[in-house]
């Protein structure tokens, strides 16, 4: 095992291989306050990549209803339970000196799936703590959709008291997921054939279909269960991050880096994807005007999914504001309270950056904000609040302007003679 720096955990961590990082890393932010589970993302991926024979059970993009839903079923509870059994009572965070770029969430004192594997398995035979889901667990990607949390210990009973603001007693939310193209991929670490690799240009994790022999070690190891086995070809497959679009080689892209199919199809406009600059230790290099850098490191509203697993995933989530905090802290780590406070009363810049989601299919590399007049003054979440009609401008790889948009949506009044037409 090598020692690598994991900035999500605020410490060095063990990984089977030495660290090596791309210049820019594929990453994304999902604002799950806005997801409506329309499954357009799910179907965009399905109709592009997994519509063939043998792929019927594969949903590289999926949206599951938490707390009960999961694809495969209970994937997160199962791996968390295995870690707890391996390190009873030890899976905890200490805030310590958190808040810096190398340890924004404090320090994770527990064991990752790589560290726990050392005393759970024979180290010669397995490098990652994991499990292989059963066929039944892959069968119902939409199970428990729209089912809220009920009363503890009472099946199918809602809590009639409703809310305890700011959180709800009866709650659910939609968790949209794809492969996280992790910085320390468990799938890659576990592959005995070395058939899985991380592209040096964008950090996208791919399975070499000619090298794979279908041992399913990646399926077992990926804690997010985003590597899947295909029975008729006897090899494993996973999300390819729509790499021809990201690389700008898709005919539709006109040579410019383009967001993936699942991002571009998002009806709720919850998704933004980008390519972030990395430092030599895998931390994000300072890039103040990059929208993802801003959301993760400056506004601190977007958090990694289950960072304690140790793969340093490159998917980030703005947590749902109505969900009880202990559940969210388990899922997104100790940064949840600050993220939700900042999101509840967004400052001028955050409100501007939130307008960038899904205005274009091209990947945004930089943004600027031009200040506009005040358009509202009042209270928000018990605090005085002023709203300004600023203009936010997005720029592409070559520094070209992609689009500009304002905080206030424009109002179009149809002429009287065309009242019922566009
Ligand atoms: S999410 Fe899973 S499949 Fe994707 S890179 Fe990470 S470990 Fe591999
Ligand atoms: S990035 Fe592309 S391949 Fe991956 S889940 Fe989204 S649509 Fe599917
Ligand atoms: S398309 Fe967007 S809003 Fe619809 S389910 Fe997917 S992530 Fe949610």
So what's the overall shape? globular
Q: Estimate the strand proportion.
A: 15-25%
> What structural class do helix, strand and pairing data support?
alpha+beta
User: What is the domain total for the residues?
Assistant: 1
Q: Uncertain runs with pLDDT below 50, 5 residues or more?
A: none
How are the strands ordered across the major sheet?
14-3-16-15
Distance between the termini: 63 Å
Keywords for this entry:
Alpha-Beta Plaits, alpha+beta, 12 helices, four-stranded mixed sheet, 21 strands, binds iron/sulfur cluster
Structure notes:
By secondary structure, the protein is α+β, with helices and mostly antiparallel strands. It has one domain (2-344): Alpha-Beta Plaits (2-Layer Sandwich). The chain is 20% helix and 22% strand. The chain contains twelve helices and 21 strands. The strands form nine sheets. Strands 14-3-16-15 form a four-stranded mixed beta sheet. Strand 1 (2-6) and strand 2 form a beta hairpin. It is globular, with a radius of gyration of 22 Å. The N and C termini lie far apart (63 Å). Residues 179-182, 185-187, 205, 222, 224, 226-227, 238, 311 line the site of one iron/sulfur cluster.
Task: Briefly say what this structure is.
By secondary structure, the protein is an alpha+beta fold. The protein contains twelve helices and 21 strands. It has a single domain (about 1-345), classed as Alpha-Beta Plaits (2-Layer Sandwich).
